[in-house]
Amino acid sequence: MCASKFAIFVVMSIFLMQNLLVIFSVSESVRIPQPDLQVSTEDITFSKTQFSVGEYVNISVRIHNKGNQAAGTFQVRYTDNSSGTFFPPLDTLQGCPEYSEITSETAYLPLIQGVHIITIIADATNLVVESDETNNRASIEIYVGSSQNTITIEHEITPNPCKMNENVWVNGSARLITGQPASNASVKITIDAIGKEYETKTNENGEFFYQFTSPSKVGKYLLNISVNSGEFHGFASDYLEVKRQEYPNLVVREISVSPSTPYTSEKVQISVVIQNKGKENATNVLVEMLIDDSVVGSDEKEKIDSDAKAVSNCTWKAKKGTHNVTVRINGILSQASKSFKVIERTTQSLIPQDMGVYVVVFVILCAVIFVYISSKEKSMKFNHIRKIIKKRDKRKLSSSVSVTDEKETKRGNG
Asked: Is 186 a domain residue?
């Protein structure tokens, strides 16, 4: 009896556990629809790259709703860590659909020279219930210079976009408000996202040059440039975009042999069509053409653009037998190949195949000449016979006249 009760208990326990697991898995797979407003440093843009005391600047920020439900009306707040700043009231936005974005804008008036940290908060008054409330804010650092002590900075980042771990140059020039070059000024270049800071100085012409290695991760990085020369200051910012490394992809599209069935010792042309199917241009491409694993020709291409094609050719003296053509690109053997056969030249093949038409024409011409000559000879022979018959008839006629004359003479004498 106890054993049967224990068995019933075990069966019921297993049944309950299975149902609990099903309920738990269903609850995990069902995601409650909620909005999720997000903002990052890369979403913040300014109407200027130089900031001066008492000069308005427009700030724009893209706010993303990464949630699976639309967000209703919410407010955006702009703050500055400095008290010497004027911001308008909260910017109210009339909602944002799911998986989309919306832009907020405001006017910014800095009143104090120095470093300012601008912070932007989406849904600052918590009007929207979100799936994640921790990703609603982003901050960015700018430098506000004196209207009289501002250094104007012009700069260029090359290459931009760049690849991961690639050498990047920041070149620029700095000038005082008077137009004179800011010579021997201190230049500081920072990438806050990766905690990198680089320092250099301007030359006598106010120019600066600096090389550094790009970040090792794909992304968009804010790059700040500050120039200081005594009481003069300048600040500029830009974005460095790091893209994923792309490579060329060289493939053999076609291999051709001409003539297709050559004779022994005949010159054969091998042609290879190469295509770059990658997104990166290929440079210094070495194409080697092999017959039976032996190199018979090579060609070097200085550049093959992305999605472009290039043709390489070589000649080879044919040897009897069946042969196989393969291609090696930059030392890597392609899977493409082409087989062809070289045949021995015989008596019947002394005349090249492309001369067949001329032979036929020649035979027809000879036949026409023969017919013409034969008809000419027959005509001459016929004319000769006619002359002989004509002479014979003439003689007969002459002979007949003579006999008649003799008879007449005899008759007269009688």
From this structure: yes
